[in-house]
Amino acid sequence: MKFLTSVLVSLLILAKVQSQELNLKSDLHLSKFLNTSDSNNIKIIKRFDQFLVSKDSSLFQNKTWLKSDFDKYRFPYIDLFRVNFEGSQPTFYNTDLLQILETENSNQFLLKMAFVGNDSSNSSSLKSIYNILATIENNEVYFSRALNYYVANWNKVKRYPITYYISPKKNINEQEIKNQLKDIEILNEYFETDSIEISYYSCVNPIELFQIKGFDYSAGMYFNKKGGIVEFGNHVFSGNSSEYYTHEITHIYINTLFPGSNSLLNEGIATFFGGSGGLDYNWHKKNLIEYIDSNKDFDFSNYTEAFNKIYVDEKTPIPYMTGALIYEYVLEKYDKNKFFEILKSKADLWIILNSVNLNKDNLNSELLKQLKKGH
């Protein structure tokens, strides 16, 4: 880790501004190691400059990006959208192009870039190191996700409706695939829908997960031991060295059938069906009960922001459990169709909850009762 950081810092220090020579329109900085006399490099740099100028105007289309990437990923450069922003400052982070690397294909190149900001004290801050693929077709450059390149030689296994991409660092687990397909049947029946085709990337850990997404560095990628991500286009990224991830697959069902649903309710139903962190929902309920029994001032109404990273013993995400218990409450007091109804709502969370007789005054007492039933 220290060696990697030293290498990245060295590359950043050597980034020089050469925009005047190439008549660049963006804030692009070029490393002095880039060969700007190479004709392919010049094409790529100028095209990349066009992308940087235009990328924040739309997530749906960009003339510099391969159309097939939009078909496959829907928002293929979402990791780069507004990446130069810090709060309301749109140009806080500069783009430093560090390297243009040749690949096995003579017409494809890997672009390695860094996003570096400067505060008022002139001290630099590194946001991320990221890679994309550049392909030259008919004398024109088109960009695409590095993911296409990184998983090209991974073990591809089709088990309808899932296409698995298995890391070469692990063996495929057929039993986990069978369990996953059984859970998909349950989800199909519960949501009364056909199977949804899914691409599943089975990584050995979150570091590998971020790497195939294109990151050499991003805040947090080296800290978590487990985890996963769902992306538009029905892509599941697992950093758990597992072919089983019902939590994230449930998100795909919710995002497909109830687009724009409230994040707390979305995480709640995903936790109910798929648990969290490799542990099932009932395990988390027991863990949360023990915690609350030792913390008498606990109040569920303080944990309604879905993505606040607040855990019991670094295992049980309290906001996720809040959402899951709301789901159970609605099932008991009403039925699943009522929960589907509130999933469709775009209103504020407390307005949504008021429609099922929950509010800031009674949320804690009702969810405590729900939590301790059967325990």
Topology summary:
Elements: H1 2-13, E1 15-16, H2 19-22, E2 29-31, H3 39-54, H4 67-73, E3 93-102, E4 108-118, E5 124-137, E6 140-145, H5 147-150, E7 155-159, E8 162-166, H6 174-191, E9 198-202, H7 206-213, E10 215-218, E11 228-231, E12 235-238, H8 246-257, H9 263-274, H10 281-294, E13 311-312, E14 316-317, H11 318-333, H12 336-343, H13 349-354, H14 363-372
Parallel strand pairs: 2-3, 8-9, 9-12
Antiparallel strand pairs: 1-2, 3-4, 4-5, 5-6, 5-10, 7-8, 11-12, 13-14
Helix pairs in contact: 6-8, 8-9, 9-11, 11-14
Structural notes for this entry:
With 375 residues, this protein is of the alpha+beta class. A hairpin with a 2-residue loop joins β7 and β8 (162-166). The protein starts with a helix and ends with a helix. Residues 15-20 have low confidence and may be disordered. The chain has helices spanning 2-13, 19-22, 39-54, 67-73, 147-150, 174-191, 206-213, 246-257, 263-274, 281-294, 318-333, 336-343, 349-354, 363-372; strands at 15-16, 29-31, 93-102, 108-118, 124-137, 140-145, 155-159, 162-166, 198-202, 215-218, 228-231, 235-238, 311-312, 316-317. The chain is globular and about 70 Å long. It is built from 14 helices and 14 strands. The strands form three sheets. Strands 1, 2, 3, 4, 5, 6 and 10 form a seven-stranded mixed β-sheet that branches. A five-stranded mixed β-sheet has the order 7-8-9-12-11, covered by helices on one side. α9 (263-274) packs across α11 (318-333) and α11 crosses α14 (363-372). The longest helix has 18 residues, at 174-191. 39% of the residues lie in helices and 21% in strands.
